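QA checklist item 7 of 12: single-chain prediction sanity check.
[x] sequence parsed
[x] length recorded as 133
[x] structure emitted
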Amino acid sequence: MKWLKRFGVAFLLLPIMLVIIWGSYEIFGMCINHIATKEQTDTLQTNLENEISDIEIISVYSETGNTQGTGNHVDCLSSITFSTEMQESEIEDCMSKYYVFDEWGCYVKKTQDGNYLIYINTSAPFSDNIEGH
């Protein structure tokens, strides 16, 4: 009779344990995704500062989540606004050893006020995380 009681308690606790395990996995994935976005943004800023001698960083922005609004996935978005005397094509040339410019996930564009914006959007390590839904 004792074993039946233990089995019943374990059977009732199993769904609760599975929800706790699933929730912990999702929270772990969210933390890793945010760390990856911060690392991507920091690396982008370092690469810009190393390659462009007269750079002046104006703003740094990063976001983790479903940034494109299409589907259920998580992205790591990094964008930096900066000023330099270089032209857009020169910036792409010097940064092309780090990034592939494809006009969708990675590009450089001139803003209305004459500065430049570099934009990088990659898939997160845990791209099917609940944060992207």
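[x] summary fact logged: The two ends are 46 Å apart (CA to CA).
[ ] second reviewer sign-off
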